[in-house]
Amino acid sequence: MGDCLFCKIVAGQLPSEKVFEDDDFLALKDIHPKAPTHVLVVPKKHIPSLADVSAEDEVMLGRLMHRVALVARDLGVADKGYKVVLNVREHGGQIVPHIHVHILGGERIKGLV
Ligand code: AMP
Ligand code: ZN
Fold it and tell me: Residue ranges of the HIT domain (predicted)?
């Protein structure tokens, strides 16, 4: 586990505002929300970034995107829509080196693309 922030949250060693949890994923409110709804969906497996996945992660990655859709539905943002952001390494603006997907919604979300 080392010093990974999200591994510590997954292990319950640091507090978080959980909105979903099962054996493989945790969804928590972002501590510095950039939108009215800002939730992170985090696989419990420690993978540093999308750039570090391997073939054995394919099923988990598919389930991750399905979980994002289900959590967004539960949060009530699916009807109007939301933006999904996955920052990768330095140029992608990734701060926490444990793969996670941002769900941003509750208003029109600006993005580059
Ligand atoms: P990223 O730039 O994709 O690595 O985003 C990391 C996100 O984690 C940022 O939006 C932070 O606000 C958020 N964050 C950092 N620490 C915590 C924490 N303890 N609980 C919840 N979210 C956090
Ligand atoms: Zn980790």
Answer: 5-113
